[in-house]
Specification:
The chain has 180 residues and is of the alpha+beta class. Helix content is 39%, strand content 29%.
Length: 180
């Protein structure tokens, strides 16, 4: 679960001494509680929660060890993140948790489809392979590079440099899987 959230919304910081997860403030607070609980259960840490500009809740863990473990499992930055393949497919429960955490971080659930997006095509392909393990069909789309992307915390429009990709699950299978 933690690895999925990290793949979606995580970053390392403070010179390798911390990990943080930037969740939209309007994102279901259940997701925030779920992540905080998982961090406590797995690492024994009570993560800190910060409210940042632009409606972002930042959940942080100040630990070099946690940073190194997470970065080993999921190295890269937003455009190059990939989950270590051997770890991702190590067991079904872990795989299911990664997918759930990823979807909770970068996904959107609708009545007829579930859509996730990323600037990492490799990660999108990896998530597609992961959900196919559970016999769930999906498709990948290319959204391109957004033209004037407004960033409220910068109070201006900035030009995005990376293309964005979407992963779409449709049909009853995704609802059964994500809502089990």
């Amino acid at each position: 679960l933690i690895v999925g959230y990290y793949a979606a919304e995580g970053s390392g910081g403070a010179g390798g001494r911390s990990i943080s997860f930037a969740l939209d403030e309007h994102t279901n607070t259940q997701y925030q509680k779920q992540l905080l609980s998982a961090i406590n259960n797995v690492f024994g840490f009570h993560a800190k929660t910060y409210i940042k500009k632009g409606n972002v809740i930042d959940i942080g863990i100040n630990s070099r060890l946690v940073n190194e473990v997470i970065k080993f499992i999921c190295p890269g930055i937003s455009t190059t993140k990939l989950i270590n393949h051997d770890i991702l497919f190590s067991n079904e429960q872990f795989l299911r948790g990664v997918i759930e955490g990823y979807w909770n971080g970068d996904g959107c659930l609708g009545e007829t489809a579930a859509i996730a997006s990323s600037t990492s095509l490799g990660l999108i392909n990896q998530m597609r392979l992961a959900i196919s393990y559970f016999n769930i069909g999906s498709s990948i789309g290319f959204k391109g590079i957004p033209k004037n992307n407004y960033q409220p915390h910068h109070k201006k429009k900035i030009q995005a440099k990376s293309p964005s990709y979407t992963l779409v699950m449709q049909g009853k299978q995704y609802r059964n899987f994500l809502f089990e």
